[in-house]
Structure formats: C-alpha cells, structure tokens
Amino acid sequence: MSPDAKRQFSVYLPNDLIRRVKHASVDADESLSAFVERVLEDHLRQGDTTGEEPS
Questions:
Q1: What are the two backbone dihedrals, phi and then psi, of residue 32, each rounded to the nearest 5 degrees?
Q2: Which run of H or of E encompasses 47?
C-alpha cells in the first residue's frame, strides 16, 4: 500500500467530542477527514526532534 493510500478507521468517541471535532473542522475550512488527519499528525509529532516518522 502506498504511503498516501487512505483507509477507513472507525473509533468510538463521546457524542460531545464528535460534535466539537465536526465544528472545529468546519471552522478550519477542512473536511472532517483532513482535519482529524492533521490534528493527529500534529499531536504525534510533538516532542519528535528527529523529523523522522516513527517506524
């Protein structure tokens, strides 16, 4: 699978968090998928000083 390939990934979240994430993606003018991808990538990069993706 190429690094840019996308797959569906289901998680269970509290209703309030889902509502807040949806509103945040609209406020950021991003699709829900793009917003969640960006936020997760940003979070996982915090503290990573090597600039390399984890293996």
A1: -60, -45
A2: none
Amino acid identity of residue 24, one-letter, is: A
| DSSP secondary structure letters along 10-38 | -----HHHHHHHHHHHHHTT--HHHHHHH
Ramachandran angles phi, psi of 53, nearest 5°: -75, 145
Tens of each residue's pLDDT in the chain, 55 residues: 787 899 999 999 999 999 999 999 999 999 999 999 999 999 999 966 555 565 5
The pTM (predicted TM-score) of the whole model is: 0.75
